[in-house]
Structure formats: C-alpha cells, structure tokens
Amino acid sequence: MIPSATALRALRQTLRQLSIAPVTRPSSSSVTPSIFALPLGQQVRHASLLGNLRDVRSSFTHKKRVGRGPSSGKGKTSGRGHKGQGQRGGHRPKNFEGGQTPQWITNPPRGKNFKNPLMKHYSELNLCTVQRWIEQGRLDPTQPITLKELYESRAVHGIKDGVKLLAREADELKVPITIIVNKASRQAIEKVEAIGGKIETRFYTREGIRFVTRPHLFPDGHRLARPTSRFDIEYYRDPAHRGYLVPTVLSGESPSLYWYKKHVKSVEEREKEKEERQKRTPEEVEAARRKKEIRKAQALNRVF
Q1: Which domains does the chain have, with CATH numbers?
Q2: What residues are paired with 124 via a beta bridge?
Q3: 3-class DSSP assignment, residue 199
Q4: Mapping DSSP to helix (H, G, I), strand (E, B) and coil, where does residue 17 land?
Q5: In angstroms, rounded to a whole number, what is the distance separating the alpha carbons of residues 120 and 180?
Q6: DSSP string, 156-168
Q7: pLDDT along the chain (304 residues), means of 10
Q8: What distance in Å separates the CA atoms of residue 221 and residue 216, rounded to the nearest whole number?
Q9: Computed from CA positions of residues 239, 245, 247, 252, in that sequence, does the dihedral angle turn out positive or negative?
Q10: pTM to 2 decimal places
Q11: Of the chain's two ends, which shows fewer C-beta atoms within 10 Å, N or C?
C-alpha cells in the first residue's frame, strides 16, 4: 500500500525533527521501499514518534447539528417533520402502533409459537427405568432414592422444575423402593405401595434442585424454600399425593386452604340439647321444622 501525500508530509515533518533523512515518494510502478532509512550507528529517540501520533479522522463522526439553517439539511424542523407526536418531544413506547390496540393483543401468538411463562417442565421417570437401573447396579434400592441419586445415575437428564414418577410398564418393578420425587401419578403410587415400597412428593424450587443435585456448588449451604402458591400448598398437603406437608394437616381439616372444620359436640352438649327438645311445644317443633326446610332449599339454589 502506497502512503498518501498527507501522510508523507506528516512523516517528513516528524523525521525532520529527528534529523532523519526521509525517502521521496516512490512511483506507482516501482516497489514500495522502506519508509525511512537510518544511518548506521545513529541512535533515534522513539518517544517523539509516540508523542506525535494522530488518530484517523474517518474513525470519528461529528455530532449531528440541527436547526442551523436550510443549507445544513437539518434546519427548521430539524429532521422531525411537521407536527405530531414524532415532531414533539413526547415519549413513544417500543412497538407503539399509533394508539390502536396493539397486534400482540388483537392477534396473540397461538399454537407452536405460544409459550406459557408459568408452565413448569417436569422430567419424566417411569417405573421400568427405575427397575432397569436397579438391575444394572446404578441405583441402590436399600437406600432412599432422591433427586441426587437420579441425577448422578443419569436416570433423568436436565432437571428443570422437578421429576414426575409415571407408571409406564409398571409390572416390571419387582423391588420395593423408597423414592422422593416432586410429583407422581396415581398408578405409580399404587404400584410402588403394592410391592411394599414408599413414595413421597416434595416441593423444590430450581435453586433447591441445584442444591440437592449438586451440593458442592453451595459451600455455605442453602435453605430450601417452601411452596407459596395455593396450588402447590394444597397438592403437598393432600394424602392422595403422598405430600410431605401431610403431617401439618390437623384432625378435622382438609388439604384445601378453604376447609371448614365441623364442630364436634361433647356428650354434655348432646344431653342438654335433648332435654331442650323434650321441653318444646308442638308449635315450636313445627316452626323449627319449617326453618330447616327453608335453609335446605336455599342451599340447593345457591350459586357458587
């Protein structure tokens, strides 16, 4: 590459200060020689070269100056056009469509393009896989099988929100096991308990799953979170799901958070009510019967 005339002039000026003989500009047909030649045995102070370096002007762009007359091309309206929201200094949100209902509301993504942000992804684990892993010696049926054992034995891959136990080819399971997973199907629970095993469902967050499967990543330990949503709390309080929160349900309560505890009357209260009923007149008994029928009819017509 042949240096330009401006670059050669700058070099000549610099070399003149260093008392170095410059080389004239070569012709286009000749081979480009070295930029300058140094006499033998002469010392050069290179610090002055570093002090005279300049940036290439084309590497920087000047700020756009608007409102400086019509000859600049950005005068009068400064390139914003006439009136309207774009001409003034108002805020235009991202994907603004002029005030109409946005397309992502009127025509939302459906089908394969739709992604539910609240959906949880559970890794499926079948009973036939558990039996094969036991036969291969990759799982120990005498010890509780947790997410850590399933992750290390590669029975499941890439645990995101948990592991769900399914009952595909459940007849292959012959060994009683104790397994702790996040969720389990009704058929899987029946099969595991039919051969003398035990199953427990437990809630884990994604951070909790990382702590259980890879505890070496948490040198200071980690506190496992409890469920906060109503759906998760009711799921792990339900004995049908073998949840780990079943012991927290008191007698007379329901797994649902909207349970109603029926009052159990004592023997003394029952005897007292029996005596009061015997003292009633026929008119009072008839009035009580009518009130009871009215309340029953109102309960049948109630809209939930």
Answers
A1: 123-217 (3.100.10.10)
A2: 164
A3: strand
A4: helix
A5: 18
A6: S-S-SS-EEEE-T
A7: 70 72 50 50 60 79 86 88 78 82 88 84 94 94 94 92 93 93 94 94 95 94 93 93 92 79 77 87 90 83 53
A8: 9
A9: negative
A10: 0.54
A11: C
